[in-house]
Amino acid sequence: MQKAVKLEDDKINELLVVLDKDIEHIQDSLLRLDRLRSLLVKPNNESLERLLESIRADSDEYAANETRRQSLRRELAAILGCNVKEMTLTKLEARLEGQHKEQITRKRKKLKLLTEELKREHLSTAMLLSDCASFNSLLLRTIFDFDNARTVYYDSNGSAKRQSDAAFVNLQI
In whole angstroms, what is the distance from residue 52 CA to residue 10 CA? Predict the structure, then answer.
């Protein structure tokens, strides 16, 4: 029985290291989303390439941490005698005492806060990208006069008029 507790302590310590890496990864992701938004507003292709390269480089490291977390989850589920799907940080907290319980509680709360922030930042970035795509599409339609027949504008008297045949850019030679 004592050996199982020691094994559990070792596994908990390993889990704490994995959770620290998860926290670091989420914090890095938040910084990257912020950087991406700033690069969308003030484009800099070189900086964008560096950002994308750093994301690619870190993806392998994150995948290894994910694999290790899932492995620890299976091992802890077996030690605690529960199904892997039931093995959560909350369930683990309930089975622990003392310092390990406090550490897992802190990590779980921090991960929850960071995950909520990441969801908000991801949504903000997605909305900015969508707005940029809409703006670019509108700009291209206007410049190249793609939908001339459907474009209606209003003069200073409030009268509706169709856009003239003159395009901003003439594609004919």
Answer: 36
Q: What is the CA radius of gyration of the chain?
A: 27
- Which residue in this structure is represented by tokens 């310092």? 99
How far does CA 33 lie from the centroid of its chain?
7
> Which among 63, 37, 64 is positioned nearest to 51, based on CA atoms?
37
Token pair of 151, please? Answer: 């474009």
> What ranges do the domains of the chain cover?
2-162
The CATH number of 2-162 is which of 1.20.58, 3.40.50, 3.30.70, 2.60.40?
1.20.58
- pLDDT confidence of residue 5: 45
pTM, entire model: 0.75
How wide is the angle at C-alpha 146 spanned by C-alphas 140 and 151, nearest 5°? 100
Token pair, residue 147, equals: 């939908």
Helix, coil or strand: residue 94: helix
Residue pair 87/77 in contact (Cβ under 8 Å)? The answer is yes
Across the chain, mean pLDDT equals: 84
Q: Distance (Å, rounded) from C-alpha 124 to C-alpha 58?
A: 23
